Structures are given as structure tokens and as C-alpha cells.
Amino acid sequence: MPSLKGNQSTSRTLNRLLLLNHLRRHGPTARSDIAAATGLSPAAISYVSSELLEQQVIAELDAVADGGRRRMTRLDLNYAGHVALGVKLMERSLRATLVDLGTNVIDTLTADVDARSPAAVARATADALADLLERSGEHRQRLIGIGLAMPGQHDAERGVCLRCDRFGWKDVPIAALIADLAGVPVWVDNDVNAFALAEHLFGAGRQASSLAVFSFGRGIGAAMIVDGQLLRGRYGGAGEIGHLTVVEDGPRCECGRLGCLEAVTSLPAILNAYGIVRPSDRSIDPAALATLAGEGDPVAREILDTAGRRLGAAAATFASLFDPETMVIGGEGVLFGPALLDPLVATLKEKNFQRNTEVFVEFWNDDAWARGAAALAIDSFFSLPS
Ligand SMILES: [Zn+2]
């Protein structure tokens, strides 16, 4: 948190954030109602809103109120006024998604890249930006920047990947490498943190003062946002719940330890468990396993039920520690369907010491991670610079 000196530019920044966050949470609002809700003076709202209108961050909407007797102008975010690029990095590919200010998808592409090479990742990211800007006809001047979401621990402030076991990275200044090629600001963070930020800004956590997300897919992680701020921890490792030991002397995890939750219940581990009992040469995916469970296959049902209960217990541990108002479940693992999600949510509710946590399961699709990544850039409009 930067020091807040009582000078004019600081109060302008704070007024701007109050107004933008009000519109983000409540949608189109008349100036007088913003004043009543935020405590800002009409003069302050007038000053800040004219600046934001000029910058095309907000727009004026005409509406008729009082049963047609009075015309009133409301302010809203100008969603189409700015765009951001979100990039989700995986082991052999990246998915790049161009979104508007509300993280709505404009266009998307997938490119092959070897994630073990930071230079190749930087080049592929800059190329993806150029391709998507050209294809969509969006102007570079309206681009806020690029958000990169990937596994591991990051120094988000400096844009450095401190450690990523999956890709073999250590102290890689990836934001600077990309910015040198792309010529725009770049933010980098853990993919689960990025997902949490997207849910906080424009998702299920939009109205919540505190939000937790629990995500499971190739990896398992959790993240927590309080009053708009991500809890990152000193070395960006907060929320690494996938590395709780759940089976003493269990299978080896990519972090090097034995029996981590992630080694036992990640998406590949679940598919692998089914393949061991029912060997077959056709590869099975989460949707296929969900279908088998739905048809009553006892092996599929048993594996998904066990995994769901383990994941639910971990999510309950996280919720019990942090007492979030809202918790969102996401990740590719959602595609395993009700045979896994029902026991997950039931166990989460049963074991959560905090009885009032609202739980949502995110409908998952291919753009979800990249939209989260874009939120890393978009958040710069809605929070204080770190
Ligand atoms: Zn581990």
C-alpha cells in the first residue's frame, strides 16, 4: 500500500477509484446517487467524471425516470473504450484473449510455445498481441496492457516469476522481457490469483467485500481477496493449498514432496486413476469420465466421489481459515461434472467452520483463465497502484 499523502492528486486518485468501483459494482448510476452512496461532493464527482469521460473510461447514458416525467443522465463504465490482452501460459501452448474493460471476450487464439523458454514465451506473447489487434481492428492506443497468468510464485510488483516448478523458471523478469518486445505495460501473476481478480472485478465476487477462489485442474490452488486486495504473501506463495499433504508417503508431487493434494487429485491424477483400473487405448477426458459416471459406471463414480470429497475438505480448510463472504470453485476440473462437484460442495459446506460462506461453481470454458489474466491489467483501473 503506497503512502497516502493528503495532496490534491492523491485525493483525485481516490475519488476516481470510488466512482469507478461504484459503477463496476452497481452499473449505470446517476451522479446524485453516486454522491449519496460514496459521500463524494457533487463538485468532486463533476471534476472526476469529466476527466474520465474525456479518457473514454466512462460514458453517459440517457434514461427516462419517474414514469417518463424526467430525463436523467446516468454514468456507466465505457466497456468498449479500452481493451486488454490476457495470456494463460501452459506447458506447450499459450491461450491469448483480447477482452474489453469488463473482461468480455473480443477475440482469442491459441499458439504453440515451449513454456520452458522465457524468451520463446515473450516472443509468442508479443506475436499473439499483434495478431489479435490486427484481426479485431482494435487500436493499440486503447490497449491497457498485457496480463500473463501462469503457475508458480511471482513478485507481481516487479513483474518477476520467482519460481515455477512446472516450467523450471527461477527469478525470470518475464514482464520486462514481454514489454521489451510488445511495447506495452505487462503484469504477471499466479493463474489462480488472476482468476480471483477476474471474479472480484466482474464475476461472482463483484458485490462481496471478501472473496476466495478454489481452483483445480492441472494444478490445485486457492486465492483470497479482501477489500479489493489480493493476499499474495511475502514471496507470492499464499494459497498454495495443492501442496497440503493428504496421503503420507503418497505419490511424488512436482514440488518434490510426497502425497500432496495436487499429486493425488489433480485432473491428470484423476484420469490416471481411472486408466489404471480400466486400461484402454483411447484417452479419456473429464467430460467423458463425467458421462461414464452419469451412466452409472461404478469405477468412475467412486474415483470422482473420492476426489470431490478430498477437494471439498481442502476448500473447507481454506474457507475456515479466511472466512470469505463468497467462495468460487473453478478450473478445468469443473468439467468432471456433478459426480465430483456434488460431493465437493457438500463436503465444503459440511467441514467449513464458517457457516455462511456463499459457494458458487463457475461454469468453465477455455477462455476463463485468459480472461483472468486480462484482469491483472484491467485491475490497474480499479485499484491503487502497488
Ligand atoms: Zn506439492
Q: How are strands sequenced across the largest beta sheet?
A: 6-5-4-7-11
- Could you describe the largest sheet, including whether it forms a barrel? 5 strands, mixed
- Number-wise, the strands total 16
What is the CATH topology assignment of the largest domain? Nucleotidyltransferase, domain 5
CATH class of the largest domain: Alpha Beta
| Rg calculated over all Cα atoms | 22 Å
Q: Domain count, please report it.
A: 3
**H/E series, N to C?**
HEHHEEEEEHEEEEHEHEEEHHHHEHEH
Tell me which CATH architecture of the largest domain applies here: 2-Layer Sandwich
- Helix proportion of residues, in percent? 40-55%
What share of the residues does DSSP label as strand, in percent?
A: 15-25%
Instruction: Look at the helices and sheets and give the structural class.
Output: alpha/beta
CATH homologous superfamily of the largest domain? Answer: ATPase, nucleotide binding domain
Pfam family, one: ROK
Family: Belongs to the ROK (NagC/XylR) family.
Organism: Pleomorphomonas carboxyditropha
Protein name: Sugar kinase
Would you give an account of this structure?
The chain folds into 3 domains: 8-77, Winged helix-like DNA-binding domain superfamily/Winged helix DNA-binding domain (Arc Repressor Mutant, subunit A); 82-197 and 369-374, Nucleotidyltransferase, domain 5 (2-Layer Sandwich), CATH 3.30.420.40; 205-361, ATPase, nucleotide binding domain (Nucleotidyltransferase, domain 5, 2-Layer Sandwich). Helices cover 40% and strands 24% of the residues. The protein contains 12 helices and 16 strands. A 5-stranded mixed β-sheet has the order 6-5-4-7-11. A 5-stranded mixed β-sheet has the order 14-13-12-15-16, with helices on both faces. The protein has a 3-stranded antiparallel β-sheet with strand order 1-3-2. Strand 13 and strand 14 form a beta hairpin. Helix 4 (118-136) crosses helix 5 (174-182) and helix 8 packs antiparallel against helix 10. The longest helix has 25 residues, at 298-322. The structure holds zinc ion (ZN). Zinc ion is lined by residues 243, 253, 255, 257, 260, 262.
